[in-house]
Amino acid sequence: MEKLRICLLIIGLVYVHVCFGQSGWFWQNPKPTGNDYESIKFYNQNIGYAVGWNGTVVKTINGGTNWFLVNSGVMNLIGSGYYAGILRCVYVFDSNTVIAAGNGIIKTTNGGLNWTLLNANYFEDIFFVNNSVGFAIYANNIYKTTNGGINWNTTTITGSSWSSIYFVDLNIGYVGGRNGSVLKTT
Predict the structure, then answer these.
(1) Which of 60, 71, 84, 156 is deepest in the core (most CB within 10 A)?
(2) 8 Å CB contact between 103 and 54
(3) Closest by CA position to 134, among listed 162, 123, 9
């Protein structure tokens, strides 16, 4: 019986240490909202954006200590259809120019004060190689822009439902999808 008590005491101490040992984490959500976030990207150590459900777009200018809403008018742009209001990913070009995608692709050039709808299709992920060339993905389609997101051309890739995209440069890129599928283009 004594061995059982000692064993339970050790398990309890390990549990407390593992669960409460991360003293460097600080609660940031629901400040300023309680919505789910899907993606977060930083331009530099201070300026970052996070996007998520219900058209949520928040921005920090102090490294994440404080966040404020910058989603004025976003729901008017992406608030209809099956995926209404969902933003799945964000790409930050500079402190003021940001593209977010989900139930459409939206862009701001003034730090989130105003947003413009660039494409009304649904997207899982987006990646830009530079200010002009970018790629977006959903299901079996890869979309490419060469003018900063104004126009998009579509290519179909069979084999999976693709949900993640990354490019090393203008030629080398990867897509990831269901069932462990990864493809590379060169």
Answers:
(1) 71
(2) no
(3) 123
List residues bridging with 40 in a β-sheet: 50
What 3-state DSSP class applies to 134? Answer: strand
CA distances from 76 to 50, 55, 62, 87 (A): 19, 9, 29, 13
- Mean pLDDT, consecutive 10-residue stretches, the chain (186 aa), reads 58 52 58 81 96 93 93 87 88 96 94 93 93 92 93 86 92 90 91
State whether residue 20 is helix, strand or coil. Answer: helix
Sign, CA dihedral 22-25-30-34, equals negative
Helix (H, G, I), strand (E, B) or coil at 129: coil
> Tokens 């993640």, residue?
164
0.85 exceeded by pTM: no
